[in-house]
């Protein structure tokens, strides 16, 4: 009986290296590296080639620059210029990494794809279920909340049951000891560049200053381009006062930045669009769930109210701070991801 053939998504970091080391024991593995819009692609490729040589596995480079630009970079820029704050990793995971990249890997004769994500997949008679990784400090289930049943069926997360410290110890046993501080970048196309600098360089025609207005309608300053701001931001406003001002709203239609005081950032109800249920069906709305409104959010208890097939209201038991349009609300039942959607307001 032939071994299962697994394509490893390699990044040059410790996690994908550990994934390859684990799987090569009982499967036939080959490495795959995406060419997207990395400013330091040549350096990254050289590192991945060196790791593949040390691992003694074949390496393939999949060029997805054009598709990445259309599906991720244009989404990223459009979101900021329309007054919202995007999450490019969420979109990239579904459309590119576990979409086009996964298809490329499978088309090369691989049976499944494997990545170094800290998350777990459980398969039973009802389908594939996405759960938190064991390590709470590295849990990446949030970023995978847009995946489909078909995508989950063809991927393995070998590190889901491990802690990061264990992964470092594991690879060091095989002589891989030069990973100190090297991690895959969340926003690979930015490198060390700020969002504002990135957009200003590439879309100079879209840079427009405008008024900064309080929630009471009083102009209190001028902004230098709405794309430089996000909900909850305090720095860079340049508005002197006895207590700090925060960004509470962004009105792209009138090119207006809205600011208020700290307590004006609190909300209990949000509207979410483009809802995606991992099982394909909405959950029991009589239950309560934990909802994360950004990756760094620990989650808060909430009830769901269905508006229609593609949108819901999420009502929290306690007010949440700086709910940001454009970000993703991810809904959990215990440690299982059951759905997600884009925060509208």
From TrEMBL:
A Gene Ontology cellular-component term: cytoplasm
**Which family does the entry's similarity section mention?**
Belongs to the MnmA/TRMU family.
- The record's active-site residues are 92, 188
Give a Pfam family name. Answer: tRNA_Me_trans
What is the protein's major site of localization? Answer: cytoplasm
Q: Which InterPro entries match?
A: MnmA-like, MnmA-like_C, MnmA-like_central, MnmA-like_central_sf, Rossmann-like_a/b/a_fold
Per its record, how is this protein called by name?
Answer: tRNA-specific 2-thiouridylase MnmA
The site feature described as Interaction with tRNA is recorded at 117, 327
| Residues involved in ATP binding | 9-16, 34, 116
Q: Where is the tRNA-specific 2-thiouridylase MnmA-like C-terminal domain?
A: 268-343
């Amino acid at each position: 009986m032939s071994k299962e053939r697994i394509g490893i998504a390699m990044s040059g970091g410790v996690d994908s290296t550990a994934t390859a080391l684990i799987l090569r024991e009982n499967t036939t593995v080959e490495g795959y590296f995406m060419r997207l819009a990395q400013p330091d692609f040549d350096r990254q490729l050289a590192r991945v080639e060196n790791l593949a040589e040390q691992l003694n596995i074949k390496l393939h480079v999949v060029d997805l620059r054009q598709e990445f630009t259309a599906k991720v970079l244009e989404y990223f820029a459009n979101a900021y210029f329309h007054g919202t704050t995007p999450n490019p990793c969420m979109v990239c995971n579904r459309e590119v990494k576990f979409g086009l990249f996964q298809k490329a890997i499978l088309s090369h004769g691989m049976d499944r794809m494997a990545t170094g994500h800290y998350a777990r997949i459980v398969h039973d008679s009802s389908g594939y279920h996405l759960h938190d990784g064991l390590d709470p400090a590295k849990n990446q289930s949030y970023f995978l909340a847009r995946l489909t049943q078909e995508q989950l069926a063809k991927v393995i997360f070998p590190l889901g049951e491990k802690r990061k410290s264990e992964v470092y110890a594991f690879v060091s046993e095989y002589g891989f000891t030069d990973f100190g501080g090297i991690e895959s970048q969340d926003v690979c196309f930015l490198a060390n560049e700020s969002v504002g600098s990135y957009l200003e360089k590439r879309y100079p025609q879209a840079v427009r200053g405008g008024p900064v207005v309080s929630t009471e309608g009083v102009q209190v300053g001028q902004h230098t381009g709405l794309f430089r701001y996000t909900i909850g931001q305090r720095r860079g406003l340049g508005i002197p006062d006895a207590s700090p001002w925060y960004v509470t709203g962004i009105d792209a239609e009138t090119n207006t930045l809205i600011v208020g005081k700290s307590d004006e950032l609190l909300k209990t109800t949000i509207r979410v669009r483009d809802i995606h249920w991992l099982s394909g069906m909405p959950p029991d709305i009589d239950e309560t769930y934990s909802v994360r409104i950004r990756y760094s959010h620990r989650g808060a208890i909430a009830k769901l109210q269905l508006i229609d097939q593609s949108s819901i209201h999420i009502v929290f038991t306690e007010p949440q701070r700086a709910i940001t349009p454009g970000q993703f609300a991810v809904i959990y039942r215990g440690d299982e991801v059951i759905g997600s959607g884009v925060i509208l307001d």
